Write a sequence for this structure.
């Protein structure tokens, strides 16, 4: 008898019929002889609606109270799901994050899990029941206050529970069939991967692939949890995210996929004096705005002027904030001007096979050259190459790379609308 | 420095502006030098909407899960209220029923409080904060499961917290100015009582007065809590519900009010064999349906037939259920037929002064006779007389009694729309 943790996102439980459908799937898994623990997100857009409600009351809700408010969302979906399972004749009980023993630190809105004590969940499944656990939420071990884990929190809850319970697999149900070699909306010939390493999945997620959250993959990797990404709309096998032990005992795909990220913008600081400490000064001011920046490029300075340009990418939504922060320090830093470019695309090629293979960069740059795509920035890691191009060339670039590395499949991918949390 | 517990019902926190208004009132109480603990119900119709949602998923939701679902309601209102208070510059923290230490038994949907341990609430107010507590909810001390207290639960939460914290007063905010000698929508000349004994309040509540729930008044009486019923729409003094020590050391009104209840119906079991045990048999079957019945009248049987009629009142909503249960046992009980009457009114006159005063019944019956109102059933307690009349005569009867006992006031009462939980 295997223990399986299943996670269903908000789009899988958006309304009463969806909840009944998910209940049936859970019961089927249970009837097949498995112990089942389910992690569920809030229904559909509930979380956004609760945030809106808070903003009607106050412009900037306090973290502790916003967490208390938002956790009402999973409370609703999980109790309805438990009701629906009971209606099918099986015992089911819902548990809040606190009841499931998800102890976190005190950072409201982005709490980190410090310990998982799923005693009540263990008791529930030992008694033959199906346990339904609220995703996204925990409690501050010090104060007992309710906390939330931030974006992708429900995925993290599921993986953390799977680790603590020693589950055979953590199934993450979503609105796509699994992890694809590229976003099928951008590259129609993208094919589903049957297996991917957690390392590759991390790079893909970091490069903008939406299917799994980085934190959950990191947690799975650190605790040896196998994730199975699959669709809640059919019973197809999805993608297994496995932990490569690095000994090469599996046939590993050289390249696992291409990710396109259109959510980033680029800031260029023009005419920075090329003296030691200037880059540090600039990025200290950027860090003070709590913005995550990604790629950084510094031009070679011209000998005549002694000035250089520094460019970096960041989420478009943070552009205004960072521009203001830097402009306020223009005299102090001594740069000439500041440019914001919201029309870029970041395209990344990911594959564990890169590690042992040469010529990957050359092949990628050639493919882009032949497709007529100009490269503006380049950044590489051990198993990833990212380039920045004009946004208008995103599709062309992604398709060219996808084809060049032999990723094209025979059939078209199926994508459903909506996204979970 | 006094400790005050304030309870706000759903209509007082129905939307963002109402929540901000209530926050201001709480802050004003705090600024006046009081320690403040606030108990809040779910916003407006939230609870009904959650019940509807559950019924979309399953016809008969399981109690444990329904409680988990419904408690999302107060979680939303209390966190929003805490945010609004913080926005005014005062520290406020919200607490669930569990966090506030409301330990109950295991009866989901109608749990009884078994112990109140408000350690965290005490700590919050000792630190200078305003504590916001979810009304209506608790936790099963044995299992840790979430429970709800049933109808009027938030009033009970407030009184129980006031008792456990030794509060000076428990202020129950509602949409009327206090307790009236009659419902002002029925008797426009009704006047507000400045004080009423908990005993009288119990009888008025039992007789259909909606302003306070019986359970909360019972709890207050048993634990010596003074309740102040007042409006959240103005700052008028309301009605104090005090615990009469029975030694007559206060000037007590002879008659405190008239209550009208149009929510009941009457079932008549026609042609019951007048043999010992038949009434017991009938009411055992009624009890099996878990219906609360109120007045019971058995006619004198006719010598010729040896048959009698038995009538009783019950909530209209339970009429169909009880009729079906009795019809299923018709042969066994041996009655001739069954009548349901949904057009009755129950009118009650309540007053501690009745205890020491004679002629009250005669005066009441005379007033109804002179108003042309026929009496169908009569029931009395030590401090209450109830009669059943045709529903169409409810207003006439209530006004006639109100005038006959000198209750008419000089000014008209103000009533706001909506009701709390």
């Amino acid at each position: 008898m295997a223990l399986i943790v299943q996670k269903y996102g908000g789009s899988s439980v958006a309304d009463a019929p969806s909840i009944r459908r998910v209940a049936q799937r859970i019961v089927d898994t249970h009837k097949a002889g498995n112990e089942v623990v389910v992690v569920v997100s809030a229904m559909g857009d509930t979380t956004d609606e609760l945030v809106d409600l808070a903003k009607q009351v106050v412009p900037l809700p306090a973290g502790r109270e916003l967490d208390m408010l938002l956790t009402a969302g999973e409370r609703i979906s999980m109790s309805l799901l438990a009701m629906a399972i009971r209606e099918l004749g099986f015992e089911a009980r819902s548990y809040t994050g606190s009841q499931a023993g998800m102890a976190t630190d005190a950072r409201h809105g982005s709490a980190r899990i410090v310990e998982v004590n799923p005693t009540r969940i263990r008791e529930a499944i030992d008694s033959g029941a199906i346990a339904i656990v609220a995703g996204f939420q925990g409690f501050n071990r010090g104060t007992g206050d309710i906390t939330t884990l931030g974006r992708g929190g429900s995925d993290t809850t599921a993986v953390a529970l799977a680790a603590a319970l020693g589950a055979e697999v953590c199934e993450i149900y979503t609105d796509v069939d699994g992890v694809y070699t590229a976003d099928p909306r951008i590259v129609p010939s993208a094919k589903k991967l049957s297996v991917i390493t957690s390392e590759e999945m991390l790079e893909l997620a970091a490069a903008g692939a939406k299917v799994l959250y980085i934190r959950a993959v990191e947690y799975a990797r650190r605790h040896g949890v196998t994730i199975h990404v699959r669709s809640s709309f059919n019973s197809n096998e999805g993608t297994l995210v496995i932990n490569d032990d690095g000994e090469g005992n599996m046939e590993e795909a050289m390249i696992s996929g291409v990710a396109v990220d259109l959510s980033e913008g680029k800031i260029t600081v023009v005419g920075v004096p090329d003296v030691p400490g200037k880059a540090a000064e600039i990025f200290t001011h950027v860090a003070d705005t709590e913005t995550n920046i990604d790629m950084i490029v510094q031009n070679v300075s011209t000998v005549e002027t002694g000035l250089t340009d520094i460019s970096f990418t960041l989420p478009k939504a943070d552009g205004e904030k960072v521009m203001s922060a830097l402009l306020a320090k223009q005299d102090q830093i001594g740069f000439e001007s500041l440019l914001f470019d919201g029309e870029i695309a970041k395209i990344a090629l990911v594959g564990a096979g890169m590690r042992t293979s040469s010529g990957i960069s050359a092949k990628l740059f050639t493919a882009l050259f032949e497709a007529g795509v100009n490269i503006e920035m380049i950044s590489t890691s051990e198993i990833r190459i990212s380039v920045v191009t004009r946004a208008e060339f995103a599709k062309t670039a992604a398709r060219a790379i996808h084809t060049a590395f032999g990723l094209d499949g025979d059939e078209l991918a199926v994508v459903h609308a909506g996204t979970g949390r």
